[in-house]
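TA notes. Do not distribute before section.
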Amino acid sequence: MKRLIVLLATLLLSFGLAYGAGTGTIDLTVPDTIVPNAPFAIATVISNDVVCGGMQIPMTLSSPDGVTWSWVAQTENAWGTSKYVTHNPAGRIHPPATNFDLTGGILVVETGLPNAIAYGTGVMFGPGMAAGGPSEEVYIHLMVTNDFPILEVHQLCVNMNLPIGATEFAFSDYGGLGVAITFQDDGNDGTWCFPVRKPDNMCPVPAGPAAITGPHCGVATGTFTATDNEGDTPIWSVEVVSGTGTATITAGGALTYDFGDDEVNGAVAQLTVGVADAFHTGGPCNTLTVMVTATDVAPTVACGAPAHTIPILQAFVKNDIVGNDVDVCDDIVYSITGPGAIDPATGEYTWTPGAGDVGTYTVVVNVTDGALAAECSFTLNVVSFTGLQVIIEKTHQTLQGHYENVLVSFGEATNDVGGFDLLIGYDASALSFTGAELHADLVACGWEYFTYRYNWNGNCGNGCPTGLLRIVGLAETNNGPDHPDDECLSDLAGKGIANLTFLVSNDRTLECQYLPIRFYWMDCADNTMSDLTGDTLYMARDIFNFDDNPLDPTQAINYGIDVTMDSYFWPGYYGWAAECWPELGPDVKQFPLEYIDFIDGGIDVACADSIDARGDINLNGLANEIADAVMFTNYFIQGISAFQYPEGSIAASDVNADGIALSVADLVYLIRVIVGDAQPYAKPAPGSSFAVTTQVLNGEMTVNYNATGEVGAVLLTFSGPVGSPVLGNGAANMDVVFNETRVLVYNIGRNAIAAGANELLTVPVTGDVELVSVEAADYYGGPMETTTRTLPSEFAVSQNYPNPFNPTTTIALSLPTASKWSLAVYNVAGQLVKDFNGYNEAGNFSVVWDGTDNNGSSVASGIYFYKMVASNFSATKKMVLMK
């Protein structure tokens, strides 16, 4: 029965139908434009007002202008042997309800390939295709295979009125009657023609990150790519929508965003990355939005030595605290929790404990870059002592060729001492050591052992002073019933330790020289003392020069502080190295104490012209008097024995100032002066000089000087008008006259400008007024050699020169005051490459970088940053190394 119905329906569809009341429409749709070499589908759009029980739809393809095509097989919802026909799963030709029963099958006729294809069926079991539509029901899948030039239009046509074999177009209702179908093509004749055209040039399609991050002191980067159907080269652009930085993108799509100065940690900028090609001008044709976030790396800080023992009532300075921030544009700020104070810019810690501050303290150091922070800590053990001072005497006006005794003694001393081991250096070409003896003060205390030897431990090589002397003493040797007086050895303030005897060389090139005698360190045990029990070792705390002032800071980088920082000078004159400090543990139960302040001394060799005045042969302070003539006359008869003090008498004998001592001409001129026929020559001031430094601060120029002797008058000439001068301490008793550009400092009486370094005057200035010349005369009217130097008015670091450079560049620095300074070079990743530091007096100086890192290795070409820090000042600049 089933076969009979199918056959009947097939016959009806094949040989003509009697039409019923049902009607419908059929249309074909494609994409707006068929694109060559891109698969597409022809959709069959059906509407019917009665239930449809069968259909036959032939499709014959043709082209009036040479379009070719191929069929495209499908995998989903496909019919036929080659699967070129599919149905719409949401359409009405689909189970389970009111649709065709697909178990009967949709027949696809492929015998007309490649130009024609047909599909359809006879009467269906099930409810058939319900009335409805128009809706897309069936798709024919194919692809145009031609490749036409852009904008060239062709046509692909589909005809439903041409039979394909025995298959003709027909629709029937569920009862087998024909359904009148109207074609919806332009001519309603069942022929549709569709345009085929290669599209216009397609815009490249960009791809890349939607968000990037980078250090706020540097740059954020990202890489972008573009897909172009035609293979055109992408043209990139970037726009900063929000943010204060600058953005660039390379031809290869490498994006760089350089953060603005105000874009710190967490700041977000919005960029628009655009792309175009040579066919799309006037701006990007596609864009991406990119969000850029600034990041910040937390600073680091190291507290240096972890523990210090310090006395009450003495200033403690710690400058081994080092903070760092790889974000080179960040200025770190130091602060502390605990006693004392810290310089917020340099990290130098200071504290003077009071009498009630004995105890142990933890100081926490914090550094912050304004956003992130780090901290470290150190401990202070405050003890109730003021320490020991050990002093080498500084002698005055020592005559050459004579022996000089130099005292080594205690200054301040609050604790007992049971032994000492002192190493002392001197210049053996100028001084000959002849012997040492224990001082009478320690002998009186019952001190039992004292010895000395040359050199530190034999010959120490070329790195040592030419003369080294070690003196060693023990208060108690346990050699019998007699013992030293402990009370005496506990009250050592002002007591002598040893007398050293030196013979001063008669080499006249040493005239007026200072011959230092200084404590020297070769190992950790040098220049140490012990308490009476031997339980506690006293080590160096500070090293000073003879007048109790800190050593020249250009030579002692950490004067006045914990000497463990001075390992740069080990071995040398500046204390023990950090390696000497033990760590507490099973083998170390007691720390040594940083207890002793060492004060260096030396021998001051007398100047020949300072021994006495010209003509004062007998050295009684009265020149050119009759007793001088008598002694001088005796010299010509008795020889040098006529002089009680030969050095002084010889120096005073050049009465006629011809440079020849002990001559008859000198005796004659002495007599002429005594009888009033000639005037005495003034005491000479050989090599007299007057060095001037100027500095302008807050509209006022300060003129300082350094004079080798008393000055009778000074004339200053300026480049422009100045205000009323005010005399300084060095010229307080002088007179001053001035006009707009010249100032004269003088005195009509016997006053003089003091010798040495002092302030001459201050004078108001405006604009760029400078001191252009200086004239000076000594107290006796002799001309003095003058020099001038201008000090900067503010801290500054200049742009390096040359820039770019290879391989070296010079960076100029300016200090308005004597300061410690540092200059650090960083790469763009914020890593430290090279650092310089030191201490300089006020003035201008420069640092040369040779393009190497701290290990001496050459660095790569690129951008580098350098940062100067001095006092409360810091500044960062950029430079380029180009090899």
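Switch to the second chain here.
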Amino acid sequence: MGLNKKILLAFVMLIILPLLGVGWLTYSTSQTLIETKYGEQTEITLKAISKNIYYVLKEVNYFSDNYAILNSDIQETYRVLNTYEDSQIDLRYENGFEAKLRRSFLSYSPIQSVALYANSGATITASNIYNSLITYAQLRLNPVFKEVQQLKGIPLWIAPGEHTELFGKDAYFYQLRIVKDFYNTSDIGTLLLQIRLNELEKIFHLYNSDNVQTTRFMLVNKAGLVLFDNNEELQGTNILENIEEPFVLNTSKISQKIHFQNTKSIITSHEAELGELGAKDWIIVSITPLQYVTGQINLVIQSVGVILALFLISALIFNFAFVNSIIRFILRVAQAMKRVERGDLTTRVDRIGKDETAVLSKGFNSFVARIGELLEEVKLEQTRKNKAEMMLLQAQIKPHFLFNTLESINILAVRNEGAKVSQMVHRLGNILRISFHGKEEITLKQEFEHLCSYLEIQKYRFEDLFDYQIEADEEVMECGILKLTLQPLVENCIQHGFEGIEYRGLILIHVYIEGERLMIRVQDNGIGMSNVILAGFQYKMFEDMAETDSAEHVEQRGLGVRNVADRLRIHYGKEYGLFICSGENQGTTIQCVLPNTKLGDDYEA
């Protein structure tokens, strides 16, 4: 590790990290403490709300008990109703029944409607609002009736949104209970009360901390159904649908962080403990945006963070401004030496002065300059050698193909087939134009023009021997490739792959881009190669084989697959070249791997 890095590391480890750690610890601790204390305070608030709701329901239960059980008029009404068997008769005006209900139940303002169901099925109702209650037959068919019977006279509270098949989706609370005979405690009927609990809204607004109602209070059941919402937005929906995280209503957990309606919030829940009054499984939920809870402390922490950042910047400036100049110079020389090791011979170390450091920088610069001169001489010599090899490889254009093509043109001319003669001459011109092109590298589009001309000439010479397909997207046409790369590969397919076949050959050329490489695949369905010949390609055994081949056999191969591989290696480097896969009677596939470079319009012939 360099000296500069050691100093910087010590500065970071001993000053910056401890300060950041203390800051983060303070922030986390304060956040946790605030959230915990807020959760505890909210728990106390929810307990107080629960107690208030308890008193509200208890008051309603008191009136229900007083009129349903203790009131002799109501008891007598049930006895009379049980003498009627036809539940379809309108009994409201019989014996002053409706007047009795209005003097008793409807005298209590929260009760909006009341229905007395006798065991015989006779029913009498009264209401302060335009509303119709369910029939006794509907009630008996619903499972809630059995639940009420099991309570044996204890009232059952039904909140808005519960049992909508009976009461719809209105905002009223309902109370159901079995009414017993005061004297023999036998069941004499059922009582249904429709109640508007305006006191709930007053209770929730009373415990909001400000006028903007930052805290959301809800009354839900254990399934998450919102029975009452002080914002009147989610009433009748499921609260869990508005919470992004998996969440279970858990009365034992004081508070928890959640995302409620896309806002990070703190949710606190408390069981209402209203079971003895007939309201089972009700839970009071408080939801407060986290920003409201931690807003002021976040502002303080941000201010402290800004001060801390200014302090750290000042410390960094001080550290870098007063580091010893000699140490900085040594580090510069060390870095310069590393760049020279990586091959950057333009590196220089500037030092103004007459001390030893100036002498050292001058000697270093002279040493690097001399190395650069020697390397340039070596590179120039190697470039000349490579160019000579490339010229030698490209000079191996076989004359047989030219002679055979001219002979074919002569035959067409004798037959007086001028159109075909023109086509053959045009294609031969394309081949010669690319062959004599002054630049080593051409676009893939130009290479395909040369290749198509070559294949069309060969198709005329070897009629019905083969077909060919070229698959290449337009985006690859401007990629660079060494000229005369693909012709030797397809020539190998025609002269060796299709030798002696009794079926129509196919040459498939597929071009695609893979990362930073251009992949060209030349595939035929010919006779393939034996393992010996294939091994010769893989392990460069063709050097010895070429020496033993006759001159004519070498001539037949043209530039040859080996020449293409050598040219690619010389021009692009060892990581590029040819990969061959073949088997006897299974065809041959040659994969040509090139760098993905764009040449553009400047390389058009």
